[in-house]
Amino acid sequence: MKCPICSGELEGKEDGVHVGKEELAFSAFKCRKCGEELVFEEDFDSLMKNALDLKAKHHYSKQISYSGNSLILRIPRELAKLFSLKEGTNADISLGKEGFFVKLAKPRGSA
Ligand SMILES: [Zn+2]
C-alpha cells in the first residue's frame, strides 16, 4: 500500500484516544516518507460509532471567549484528537432548534 500523497511506504500503527476514562482504539497508517497519517473508512466509521456510544456518557461544557473581534469556542483536546482536528480543518456550521451544529470534514484517506 502506497501513500496517496507522495507514494511513500505506509506502515500500520495502532492508535487510541481517550474519551473521559474510556479509550477508543483504532488502526491508522503513517507514511514513512512524508509522515501523513491515514485512517480508512471502515476504521473511521467504527470509531465514529464508538464515539457516538460514548456521547451519552460524556458531556462537555465550555465557556465562549473573545479573541480579537471573534468569539472562540475551545474544543477539548481529547475531542480534537478523536476527530483528527488541526488548524485548517474545515467545518460547516448549521442552525438547529437548540443551537448550532458543527459538522467536520472527514480526515484525508477516508472516502
Ligand atoms: Zn507520503
Can you walk through the features of this model?
The chain is of the alpha+beta class and 111 residues long. It has two helices and seven strands; from the N terminus they run βββαββαββ. The protein has one domain. β2 and β3 form a beta hairpin. It is globular. The model has no long low-confidence stretch (mean pLDDT 80). Zinc ion (ZN) binds next to loops.
Keywords:
111 residues; alpha+beta; three-stranded antiparallel beta sheet; two-stranded antiparallel sheet; 7 strands; 19% helix; 38% strand; binds zinc ion
Outline of the structure:
The protein is of the alpha+beta class and 111 residues long. It is built from 2 helices and 7 strands; from the N terminus they run βββαββαββ. The protein has a 3-stranded antiparallel sheet. A two-stranded antiparallel sheet has the order 4-5.
Percent strand equals 35-45%
Q: Which residues sit in consecutive blocks of at least 5 with pLDDT less than 50?
A: none
Class by helix and strand content? alpha+beta
Helical content (DSSP H or I, runs of 4+): 10-25%
Q: Quick one: biggest sheet? A: 3 strands, antiparallel
Distance between the termini: 16 Å
Q: Based on DSSP secondary structure assignment, what is the total number of beta strands?
A: 7
Summed over residues and divided by their number, the pLDDT gives a mean of 80
Shape: globular
* Count of discrete structural domains: 1
The radius of gyration over CA amounts to 16 Å
